[in-house]
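Hi support team,

I submitted a single chain yesterday and got back a structure, but I'm not sure I'm reading the token output correctly. Could someone confirm the output below corresponds to the sequence I sent? I've pasted both exactly as they appear in my results page.

Thanks,
R.
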Amino acid sequence: MQHTRKAAVIGLGSMGWGAALSLLRAGFAVRGCDVRSEVLMRFAENGGTPCTTPASAAKDADMILVYVVNSRQVEDVLFGQNGALETARPSTVFLLCTTMAPSATTAIAERLEAAGMRVIDAPVSGGHVRALSGEITVMASGMPAAFDQASEVLDAISAKVFRLGDRPGAGSQVKMINQLLAGVHIAATAEAMTLAAKAGIDLKTLYDVIRVSAGSSWMFENRGEHIVSGDYTPRSAVNIFVKDLGIVTSEAGKAGAVTPLAAAALDLFMEASQAGLGLEDDAAVAKILAAKSGVQLPGLKD
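Hi R., thanks for writing in. Yes, this is the structure output for that exact sequence:
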């Protein structure tokens, strides 16, 4: 009888959810762990096995994918009480898909390897739509043996895997640079749309023009549509970029690099978070600029 590959996905947010469903479509038996009971119920309805602890999800898994929010949560779900390391078998591959500071990724990987596990530093990009279709980009680094073991998982969840080195940390470095650009582009999109509204330009018309012009970016195409429609349902929340741009500016400072645009964007995301918008879609930073500019964006009340 052919062995059914078993995967565990810890953290069923927008990206982890997409990965879990992609693995189910590829024929994996998937256990999913999340703190939200309604998400676990929905996961069961989609054919997955819901788990309330990382330890129960990791039991008998061939691969464990970690999609929680930050390095503190990664440490908790791996090494804390009822953590995945309590039940994971030796030589299990851990894919660390959380965006973390490279130094944090390296430290966590070393602890896993010391416990006999294999690790791929595997932060991802592409948004929730591509995650659902199994077409994300993975910025990965780790030993060749770990990649060999994880090849079917990576094929199921991604359209492109960049192998960036043999040691965990390199993937997180490249993801950090990606997040610098992504955060700055979201802030720039919010600024452009707010200025257009102040100038009396129809935002839908502006969006249609810019997205096929030289000033566009992937983030403008994606988040600009959110602003035009007035839809701030969180696909990726404001607080995610408070974290990610915080990583950028902190790591840049340690390296002696100057990142003024990242710092300016971080200030905007932090202001939005402090204003109570932290759990809204990251395009909600436009609300802060709109309020300061005295303009009305679509879908917002005076």
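A quick pointer for reading it: The CA atoms of residues 139 and 174 lie 7 Å apart. Let us know if anything else looks off.

Best,
Support desk
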